[in-house]
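step: validate -> pass
step: tokenize input -> pass
step: predict -> running
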Amino acid sequence: MGSSSDVYIMQTAADVLAKFGVEYSFNVVSAHRTPDAMFEYAKSADKNGIKVIIAGAGGAAHLPGMVAALSTVPVIGVPIKSSNSIDGWDSLLSIVQMPNDIPVATVAVNGAHNAGLLAVEMLAISDAILKQKLVKLKKENVAKVQKQNEELKGKR
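step: predict -> pass
step: emit ->
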């Protein structure tokens, strides 16, 4: 994440990864304040065994795009509605409007939960255990909706 003020949003991605048993690291790497550290992190990601990067950033939100430009590891951008943002729109547009050849998968503003789940789905392509856990989650979601419908029948 670009700043420790992003923790309250990015923690939800970490929670999803933990729920699925995916190892992760949780770091502040600022594109503007620590560009050398960001370059090193991004350039060495593949060599360090990182399979997916979830990068959350508010305001100008350069972190996801810069990391994607420097790495061959897939990057998921989380636009964060920060205290200096324009209701999160600046972050969203900064992350989603990447030029050709610099893809960044982008989730909703403050959508770190879905970023975590998208990372799990990417990893499940080559991990049968993660795939089984995703199938279980999908079935649980169906059961939740069915239960909600049953509860609504009693209120009509």
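step: describe -> The beta strands are 53-58, 75-80, 105-106.
step: cleanup -> pass
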